[in-house]
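Project standup — Tuesday

K.O.: blocked on the structure for the chain from last sprint. Re-posting the sequence here as requested.
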Amino acid sequence: MTWFVLFVAGLFEIAWAIGLKYTEGFTRLWPTVATVAAMAVSLGLLGIAMRTIPVGTAYAVWTGIGTVGTVILGIFLFGESATGLRLLCVALILAGILGLKLVD
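H.V.: unblocked you, prediction finished:
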């Protein structure tokens, strides 16, 4: 169950990272409110997950989920580049996340 909580925390990290783009420098009210709420939920769930998952593992997995999800959504939502080398780097991050899960 703790790993599921950590996964959801990572999803909320993706939400607030993408949300930052829509706040336009925190000048738009509702995107800012949603982004700050996603930040709070993400950090709260990360804290809960760290009760049983080692801090280094939890933080690395949390940021990895956020990184991979944000890169993928950046490609689809904002037309960011999807070169082979960039996607290979994302795959390496995914491999690291899975590796940390398997050794813990």
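K.O.: great, moving the ticket to review. The chain has a mean pLDDT of 96. Helices lie at 2-23, 29-49, 55-78, 84-103.
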